[in-house]
Amino acid sequence: MAAAPKRPPLPAILLANDLLDGDVVFASVAATGALAWTRDPALALVAADDAAAARLEAYAGSEFAAQHVVDAYLVDIAIEAGQPVPRHYRERMKTLGPSNRPDLGKQAGDGIAAERRA
Fold first, then answer.
1. Closest by alpha carbon to 82, among 34, 38, 43?
2. Global pTM value
3. Measured between alpha carbons, how far is residue 110 from residues 23, 24, 36, 65, 95 in Å?
4. How far is the C-alpha of 37 from the C-alpha of 16, rounded, in Å?
5. CA 81, CA 63: separation in Å to the nearest integer?
6. Which of 32, 37, 44, 76 makes an SS bond possible with 8, Cβ 3.0 to 4.6 Å?
7. Of 111, 102, 42, 35, nearest to 72 (Cα)?
8. How many Å apart are CA 83 and CA 71, to the nearest integer?
């Protein structure tokens, strides 16, 4: 029997890659209260307890099964200036964009204009 995968420390956010364009997306809450994907890391839903983390993991599983996203996983974060910031370098780069071109990607505001995908 395989052991359950280890969950990162909380607080955490859920990130994945959109299956159609490969862009990094973050689980957030839509106006209806349902979970949805956003490209803006500032809108990511923060799981502060086990119940919220389990909700995000269940959403990741259902979205993977529906072939909307791939490689969904929880990422431990710190709250800086009121926004979630990944603690690890790899995930921090995924939230920003290319490290050699700060004028491109999410760090430059590209592709995150209040767009949400249900």
1. 43
2. 0.82
3. 11, 12, 20, 29, 12
4. 9
5. 30
6. 76
7. 35
8. 23
Residues 65-105 pLDDT 10s:
999 999 999 999 999 999 999 999 889 888 876 666 777 66
- What is the 3 state secondary structure string of the chain? CCCCCCCCCCCEEEEEEECCCCCEEEEEECCCCCEEEECCHHHCCCECCHHHHHHHHHHHHHHHHCCCEEEEEEEEEEEECCEEEECCHHHHHHHHCCCCCCCCCHHHCCCCCCCEEC
Burial of 23 (0-12, 13-18, 19+ CB in 10 A): middle
The residues facing 116 across adjacent strands are 38
